[in-house]
Every structure is written in structure tokens, then in C-alpha cells.
Amino acid sequence: RCRCTGRAVAIKRIKRFLTDPKRLRAEIAVLRRVKQHPNIVELIDVFETTREVHLVLELCTGGELFERLAEKGAYSEADCVRHVRDMAKAVEYLHECGIVHRDLKPENILLSTPDDQEAVVKVADFGLAKVFTGTSLKTKCGTWGYSAPEMISGSGSTFGYDDKVDSWSLGTILYILLCGYHPFDPEGERSDNEMIASIKACSFDFDDDGWTTISDGAKDLVKHLLVLDPDDRFSMEQVLEHPWITGSS
């Protein structure tokens, strides 16, 4: 709890000897740059010692979206719409600021409160975020299960990607929210190589019985996010304009 304001906060303790200092500085710089958005975890302050760096962050008592998924299995479409809208607003703002997150996944999405009806989504963990200046990004990073095909399949002088990798990650999260399992590993038994092959082939479907009760609008948004060609993949602006998100479907 902050001694000056009495506000309850979260403290992220980072040991210097376990962390790349350049990456840590980049994360702090990004958090300071985007601290005013309601769907991004706020960096309140930074304290440093010789051994540790302490990030004072907004407290999100609802925990990780990953933990909530493990408890619930899947979300109602109404809750999915709210959460995906919040995520898209946050990522749209990042992209407007010239930042690509590069590691969107349920573990990096926090909920402001434990109440699903009241919870506001907060995008967190900017350790892999990168300022995007228009030149293709080259670094392979992130979590395989949520990485776009172009992020894991390219090499050499032709390899590169842009902010549309975040759109792919959002599509993967949306799919999981709707049905409770991963689009490229439905049984949870595939190896990394098998999952990567499935991602490269964009091999997913809506064949499971659970999808029969899910609206065509929700499926349509998934199909516009999990697209092999990044040029054909929805931007965050298009996500926010989709009828399923706006309620006009």
C-alpha cells in the first residue's frame, strides 16, 4: 500500500542479475509511455536498489485471465465481447503509440476485479514490447502458442513482421475464451513442433460440438484474426468496428 496516498498497489520485484538490463529499461520506457490508458496496467513508480528494481503497478485483484479460464473453461459471448473489446482498445492505443506488444496471451491479461460482470481487462507485461517505426521487426520472440505464422516461420533477409502479430494473438485468445481450448492444440497434447506446424498451416476449425451454440458473428471475427496473410488480417480498428463487438450483428 502506498504510504503517501493509501492506495493498494502491486510490486513487481526484478532481480538485476536475472534480467537483461536493456530489456528492463525498454519495458519501463514503454510503461511510462502508455500509462494513461484504462485498459493498460498503470506504472505508478519505479524504485531501484543495487540488486533489484521494483515496479510499483496498479493492483488488479481479479488476477490473470489465464487463471480465470482454468476455473471457468469458457466464457459467455457477452463476457467475451467485453473482454475482447477492452483488449482491442488497449492494443489499438499501443499501435497508435508505435508499440507492438509481441506477447499477448492470457497470462499477460489481468482483470481489475474478481467479478466477471465488473472486471475491466488490463494488458500487462511489456518485457517483449517493441517500438515500431515502420521497418519490419526481425526478432523471434513471444510464446509459440500465441505467435503469428510470420513471426515463427521466416528467416534471412525476407523475414519480418509488423503490428499485425498482435492481431493474431488476439484471435487465439478469442478462440480460447469462446470454447475453452487452444485452436492449434485442442487436446492439449501437441509438442511445440506440432503446434508450430499447425500455426504455420493456420489449421483450426469449429467442428467441436461446443461451437454449435456460438454465434456466426463470433466465428467470423476469429476467422478475420487467424489469417495467414497479415495484410488480410484485421487491425484493432477493424476489430472494434466488427458487428459482433459493436452489438449490431
- Mean pLDDT over all positions: 89
Terminal-residue CA separation: 44 Å
Order of helices and strands: EHEEHHEEEEHHHHHH
What characteristic shape results from the CA principal axes? globular
Runs in which pLDDT lies below 50 for 5 or more consecutive residues are none
CATH topology of the largest domain: Transferase(Phosphotransferase), domain 1
Rg: 18 Å
Helix/strand/pairing class, anyone? Answer: alpha+beta
Number of domains: 2
Sheet with the most strands: spatial strand order: 1-3-2
* Main beta sheet strand tally, sense and closure: 3 strands, antiparallel
The total count of helices amounts to 9
CATH architecture of the largest domain, by name, is: Orthogonal Bundle
CATH domain class name of the largest domain: Mainly Alpha
Query: Beta-strand percentage?
Result: 5-15%
Number of strands: 7
Q: What do we call the CATH homologous superfamily of the largest domain?
A: Transferase(Phosphotransferase) domain 1
Helix content: 25-40%
